[in-house]
Amino acid sequence: MSAEPLPTRTGLAFPPGFVWGAATAAFQVEGATTVDGREPSVWDAFAARPGAVAGGDTGEPAADHYRRAAEDVALMRSLGLGAYRFSLAWPRIQPGGLPNVRGIAFYDRLVDSLLAAGIQPWATLYHWDLPQRLEDLGGWPVRDTAYRFAEYAETIVGVLGDRVASWSTLNEPWCAAMLGYGKGIHAPGRTDPAAAAAAAHHLLLGHGLAMDVLRRDAPRAPAGITLNLYPVTPASDTPADVDAARRIDGQQNRLFLDPVLRGGYPTDVVADLAPFGFADVVLPGDEDVIAAPVDWLGVNYYRGYRVAGSPTPGSSPAGAEWIGADAVHFVPDPAAPRTDSGWEVQPAGLTASLLQVHRGYRPVPLYVTENGAAYPDVLRAGEIADTDRVAFLDAHLRAAHDAVTHGVDLRGYFYWSLLDNFEWAEGYAKRFGLVHVDYATQQRTPKRSAHWYSEVIARNALP
Ligand code: FCB
Predict the structure, then answer these.
(1) Residue 195, C-beta contacts closer than 8 angstroms, at least 6 positions apart
(2) Best mutation site among 343, 370, 426, 431 for ligand 1, i.e. most ligand atoms within 8 A of its Cβ?
(3) Which pLDDT tens digit goes with each residue over 246-286?
(4) Which domains does the chain have, with CATH numbers?
(5) CA-closest residue to ligand 1 atom 9
(6) What is the pTM of this model?
(7) 402 pocket-lining for ligand 1 (C-beta < 6 Å)
């Protein structure tokens, strides 16, 4: 490394100290699901159900990260990553509700090896792998699960403590609640709107309780929560379309942002969810617990939504992940390019989501904790020329930069994902990695996007 700062060619430099990272989640990369005392999670049980996951894929072998973590840290170092966002597996750390020395030791070593490599460890306590044992007792729709989550946090936060550069309580509680208990396309695969609404509240309650544990046991480490935000726009300015946008924005964004950053649930969303028993599960004092001040907010961004209050040409009706949204229709943009997941590529939506938080809530440092795309990568002569992913990254980093120029206090960006991995209900078919994984040999091959991203990191600027 030369001591001279690399020149920036376009002047599109990011603020000094900007954190450049990549993200993964335990169940998606670790494999080793029956090793060292780990107990089954809802995702093990869900993946075992015929037809639940594409191709019948399961958490094995994933990217075998549990066994290859040292190699993967060396890889991160070679790419120049400043931070690694990973999640801690509750079923490894506290199987049967008791601390598991071997499971804990894995994360202990991971954190130390990251620190030794000069990479900030960013740990998320919960990225959807609820112990199946707790689902059998009712799962997130049951209030008790929030307290079990806080006990799990107590088991691990003190051990890793301030060696973790930044703690997150939850990843995307909207998905855990609405896709897991409403639509049923994620574990545990239930289809009950009332259960989904209750799960959303209990996840947030668990967040608030875990914040207390983090303050006590890791007092010097910043702590926050990671939400998946989607800018929602009405297809027209008719009252029906505007109300559809209000409802979807309410359930996707404000149901989570408001209690965390404003101290209480938005009244219109509470009214929308009232027929599904939401108000009954929110007990006096809960909103104060959830409002525990966070040091930062993580924004996961993939795309936005255009919605209408009645069918329009090409639109599709809201699915069961949207509660009480029978009239709502999602309106596609036929001109937008799509990723391999079928998601429209909408970089400007990233700026819009960051601005929604910046303009609507108390000042809080923001991080893009996930953003990325699946593309049908082809390994040819040992190389993956994923120019589509490079273009995606470039466009979204420009959008992130745009937010900074509008005054957003954006402090970092994490690409999803470091490695190709188990993409939930889509199994291994969708590849999001900067690094290609051959699941038969576990060979890692950095894609062109990884080299491109390395250059951005080294310059702290876009090329
Ligand atoms: C997010 C999840 C992450 C990954 C990406 C593609 O919703 O947090 O685990 O699956 O989508």
Answers:
(1) 139, 141, 181, 182
(2) 370
(3) 999 999 999 999 999 999 999 999 999 999 999 999 999 99
(4) 12-229+256-302+337-462 (3.20.20.80)
(5) 25
(6) 0.97
(7) no
